[in-house]
C-alpha cells in the first residue's frame, strides 16, 4: 500500500485533544515520505516485525497498518493495527486502480509476490465532519442534509451515521468523510472542501486546514 498523512488533533493548527483522525491526504510530501524513508521504514520496522511473526510460528497474512511519526531521531512507531487505518484508508483506496478484492485474495492465498498493483498518480484529500463536542461528549440523532448535493467526483464515506425514518442522522463522533482526487494536492483539497461544505448537521464541524501546506 501507499502512504498517507493524517491529522490527529481536533482543531485547526493541530490544537486541542487527540482524535481518531480529522482528515488525511496521500501521497505525503516528498520531504516526509520518499524512497530513502520508505526503505528505512521497511528495513528497520516492517521486515523485522513480519519476520518476527514468522519466527514465532504465526506468519501474518493480511493488512498490517503501521502508524508512525517522523522525528529528528528517525521514524518512531505509534501503533500497529491488523486492519486498514481510518481515515487514512479513505485517501488510499481511491488511488488504488487494481481490483482490491484480487489483491486481498492473493494476500490470503500467499500469492501476492509478483502481483502488479497499479496506483493512480493523483493526490487524494479527505476531510472529516464531526459532531459538536467530539472527542468529548456529543449529541447524536441530528438530521444530515446535503449528501445528495455532493459532486460525482467526490466520495462520501459514512462512519457515525444511521437511518431514522428514511433520513440519514448522526450516530457518532466522527460522522463522515468527504474525499476527492486531484491532479495536484491543492486541487484535491479544493474539491474535498467545496463538497464537504454542502453537507450540514446541527453542531457539525470540520478542520479547515487539512492538506493546507
TrEMBL record:
It is an enzyme of class 6 (ligase). GO terms for biological process: purine nucleobase biosynthetic process; purine nucleotide biosynthetic process. One of its GO terms (molecular function) is ATP binding. PROSITE patterns: ATP_GRASP, GARS. Residues 56-109 form the ATP-grasp domain. Its EC number is 6.3.4.13. InterPro entries: ATP-grasp (IPR011761), PRibGlycinamid_synth_ATP-grasp (IPR020561), PRibGlycinamide_synth (IPR000115), PRibGlycinamide_synth_C-dom (IPR020560), PRibGlycinamide_synth_C_sf (IPR037123), PRibGlycinamide_synth_CS (IPR020559), Rudment_hybrid_motif (IPR011054). Transmembrane segments: none annotated. Pathway: Purine metabolism; IMP biosynthesis via de novo pathway; N(1)-(5-phospho-D-ribosyl)glycinamide from 5-phospho-alpha-D-ribose 1-diphosphate: step 2/2. Keywords: ATP-binding, Ligase, Nucleotide-binding, Purine biosynthesis. It comes from the Eukaryota. PANTHER family: PHOSPHORIBOSYLAMINE--GLYCINE LIGASE, PHOSPHORIBOSYLAMINE--GLYCINE LIGASE, CHLOROPLASTIC. Belongs to the GARS family. This is phosphoribosylamine--glycine ligase. It comes from Geodia barretti. The lineage of its organism: Eukaryota, Metazoa, Porifera, Demospongiae, Heteroscleromorpha.
